[in-house]
Each structure stands twice: as structure tokens, then as C-alpha cells.
From TrEMBL:
This is Cns1/TTC4 wheel domain-containing protein. One of its GO terms (molecular function) is Hsp90 protein binding. PANTHER family: TETRATRICOPEPTIDE REPEAT PROTEIN 4. Residues 279-388 form the Cns1/TTC4 wheel domain.
Length: 398
């Protein structure tokens, strides 16, 4: 606030104070009769009236009710708290209604019907707040106290529907309809519960059948991989104890124990989350990654048949239209060389472009990592290729 604003604010306060001293405060005590008026305030009364009229002395009546609350029976207090909760409920203040009903139940009065109503009403408040489990617990407590309490049975059925416990909802409805066979709400709830129960059972059967089918397909897929001798890199295991054999340490992470294979290591990390699958003819199709280290580019084939040769794909990828990153226009199929790397020795193995993928997968030094086989693509005789291969031991695979 600047100095001018502060000045104006101070001027306004001075004007208000001047006005305050010149005018009388409305509702103030009468100067001539202030002692008598002061005596009407409960805190300053010298003597309380013999009979307290709530209309004349509302504050005193309220204080007296608080002071003498212990004089009332638990049933009276519980009923008063129930009425208070009902008022909050009408105002849709469900949280305060729950507090009032709870306090009423704490009085542990001997009126079974009143306690049942308190539970039922609290169940309704919980229901409107979305606390379905608490609402169901209250409905159950009310039914236990008063088995023929129709509102409790209706509320219990509604809670079970919200909790998707359709079988239990049907039981609550049946109990209610035995008391009131023509109750429209219970009839509608029973029909809805029966329909939802049938739907849930049907969906469960479908899910079970789907799970069984998927399990059969997984077993067939793993069987096909095992039969071909393809080696998978499994997720890393915890370090072995010093007492374990060196052979086990040597093979850690390698799917040499085919009985222990699982599909967790077969999910591709590439776009689309493709993974190996077995078609109706018994042929495996793998997601495959072509790596172009010279340009830091990749090509991802989502379903590369194990019986397909590499040249078939390269002829399509580098046919009439070359990729935009090949500015020197040298990535023609006849100029390309393929390699795969031994993940342990980092030794390169050159791949004949005219052999099928399966022959690569079955090589004793080829391992499928993260479910996706990968090969390196270089341009034969290029400066980058010579530099990339320099110092590396290369074996040719035919």
C-alpha cells in the first residue's frame, strides 16, 4: 500500500470513529435500566427464575438442558440424538448426521428398536457418502437387532449391489420379500441383482476359458521355442552364494534350462509391445530389430517369420525408395552386410543374407534379449564399416 492509500485509509477510519462516538449503538443496554437488562444474561444472573420459559429465556433453557442432561434416561438422550441426526440428514449434512447417530448408539440404551433405527439411519448416511462397507455393516447390525426391519433389509441389498456382491444382494432381497412380498423397490432390486449375478457368472466363465486358452497357447509357444533350441536371456537373478558352482555362475541369465523358461522374457520393448507368436501352421514369428550404427537409426519388424530370409526384408526396406537418413544413397541390398554380436564375448558373427532367421536363432552364440532378436547392418567396404570392424574378431555364418 502506498503512502497516499495509507493516508486515505486512515482518514476513513477517523471518519468512522467520529461517527461511532456521535451515534448510539443499536441494541445496546438502556442507560437507565442496564442493571435489570444485565440480569437477564445467564452468566450474570444473581438468581435464576423458578420456572424457565424457553420462549422468554432461550439461552437459559439451553444451558439447563446441557447441565441436566444426566438427568435424562439413555433412551431419551439417544432419541434426542437420533432426531438431531435426522435434521442433519434432511440438510444433506451426512457427516454430522453420522456423528449424531454414533453418539446415540454410544448411550447403549435398552430400546432395541431405537438402536436398530440408529444403525439404519447411520447406514443411510454412510451410503450417501459412498462408504458402502460401513453402510453394510450398519445394515447388518440393524437386521440382527430387528430381523423384520424392512429399511435395513433394503439398505443392505443396495449396499451389496454397489459392492458388486450380487449373490448377497439377492439374499437380502429374499429376506425382505418374505416380509413384504409386494414391495416394489425390493422386487426391482432382486431383478437387477439376479441379472447382474448372471452377467458376472457369464463373464467369469469367459475369463476362465480365455485364461485356459492363453495358458495353452503359452505352453505351445514355449514348447516350440524349446524344440528349436532358441536361447533366451532371462532377467538377472540375485547373486549366487560362494558355495554355488562356477558353471551356474557362467550360465546366469541364459535360458539354457529350458524347463525354467517363462514368457516374462519374451515381451518386446519396442513400439507396440510386439512379442513372438506361433501361427496356425506352427511357424514362429519374432519381433526383430535392425540396427544401423553409422546413422544411429533402427528398423523394427513386428513379425519376422523364422522361415524368411533377411534379403527378403532388406529388398523391401531398401528397394526403390531409400530412407531419408541415407544421404549418400549407399544402403542398397547388394551393398549391405549383417552381423550379430555375442553378448558375452562381444565377438561379431557375419550373417549370410540368404539364410532364414531360424538358422541365426539356433546359433550356439546367439541369444534373444528382451524377446527381440537384433542384427547390425553395415555398408560393405565403407569407411565407417572398416573402422567399426577394426580390432574385432569376426566369424562368418553361412
Amino acid at each position: 500500500m502506498d503512502s497516499q492509500a495509507q493516508y486515505e485509509s486512515d482518514d476513513g477510519m477517523d471518519e468512522f470513529m467520529d461517527k461511532f462516538t456521535q451515534q448510539k449503538y443499536k441494541g445496546a443496554f438502556n442507560e437507565d435500566n442496564w442493571e435489570k437488562e444485565f440480569d437477564t444474561i445467564p452468566m450474570f444472573m444473581k438468581k435464576a427464575p423458578e420456572e424457565i420459559d424457553p420462549q422468554k429465556h432461550p439461552d437459559l433453557a439451553c444451558l439447563q438442558a446441557i447441565i441436566h442432561d444426566d438427568d435424562r434416561t439413555p433412551e431419551e438422550v439417544a432419541k434426542s440424538l437420533k432426531d438431531e441426526g435426522n435434521e442433519y440428514f434432511k440438510e444433506k449434512n451426512y457427516k454430522k448426521a453420522i456423528v449424531s447417530y454414533t453418539e446415540g448408539l454410544k448411550k447403549k440404551c435398552g430400546d432395541t428398536e431405537l438402536n436398530a433405527i440408529l444403525h439404519t439411519n447411520r447406514a443411510a448416511a454412510h451410503f450417501h457418502l459412498g462408504n458402502m462397507r460401513s453402510a453394510l455393516n450398519d445394515a447388518t447390525a440393524a437386521k440382527k437387532l430387528k430381523p423384520d426391519h424392512l429399511k435395513a433389509l433394503l439398505r443392505g441389498a443396495q449396499c451389496c449391489m454397489e459392492l458388486h456382491s450380487y449373490g448377497e444382494a439377492l439374499q437380502w432381497c429374499e429376506e425382505g420379500l418374505r416380509l413384504q412380498p409386494k414391495d416394489r423397490k425390493l422386487q426391482e432390486l432382486r431383478a437387477a441383482a439376479d441379472k447382474m449375478k448372471r452377467t458376472a457368472e457369464r463373464d467369469a466363465r469367459k475369463a476362465k476359458a480365455k485364461e485356459k486358452k492363453e495358458r495353452t497357447e503359452r505352453e505351445a509357444l514355449l514348447g516350440a521355442i524349446q524344440e528349436r533350441g532358441v536361447k533366451l536371456l532371462q532377467p538377472e537373478k540375485p547373486p549366487k552364494r560362494s558355495s554355488d558352482s562356477e558353471d551356474e555362475d557362467e550360465n546366469r541369465g541364459v535360458g539354457s534350462d529350458m524347463a525354467g523358461l517363462n514368457l516374462d522374457s519374451l515381451g518386446s520393448q519396442e513400439v507396440g509391445g510386439s512379442s513372438v507368436f506361433l501361427d496356425e501352421h506352427g511357424t514362429l514369428h519374432w519381433p526383430l530389430l535392425f540396427l544401423y550404427p553409422e546413422h544411429r537409426q533402427t528398423d523394427f519388424i513386428s513379425a519376422f517369420s523364422e522361415s524368411t530370409c533377411f534379403m527378403d526384408h532388406l529388398a523391401v526396406m531398401f528397394g526403390e525408395e531409400l530412407p531419408p537418413w541415407d544421404t549418400d544413397r549407399k544402403y542398397h541390398p547388394q551393398n549391405l552386410q549383417l552381423y550379430f554380436e555375442d553378448y558375452k564375448t562381444e565377438q561379431l558373427h557375419q550373417v549370410d543374407l540368404n539364410i532364414p532367421l531360424l538358422k541365426i536363432l539356433q546359433h550356439d552364440r546367439f541369444f534373444v534379449k528382451q524377446g527381440t532378436p537384433s542384427v547390425i547392418v553395415l555398408v560393405k567396404g565403407s569407411a565407417f564399416s572398416q573402422e567399426f570392424l577394426s580390432g574385432k574378431k569376426v566369424r562368418r555364418l553361412k
